[in-house]
Amino acid sequence: MTTTNEIADKIASEQSLTKAQAKTIVESVFKQIADAAQSGAETSVPGFGKFKVKETPAREGRNPSTGATIKISASKKLTFTPAKAIKDALNG
What we know:
Elements (H helix, E strand, L loop, with lengths): L3 H12 L3 H20 L4 E3 L3 E8 L2 E4 L6 E4 L2 E8 L1 H7 L2
Antiparallel strand pairs: 1-2, 2-5, 3-4
């Protein structure tokens, strides 16, 4: 797993920035994606992919311990769809 600190370290070394500057940039990018998601907007990063909020409808489920039927509330989740170039690189 790659962490934000590891991403920032790589950016710092590649772009001649301090680690603190690079970490600020990385955190800012992720904050902008999160802010866009909270407002319901899609974030598209060409060559990388799209972040999009998806509505999950309410449904019935089962409590695994008791087997009782329970209602699972509707919710939102953040999805990521990789760009074609990323998919192709992953799949050879």
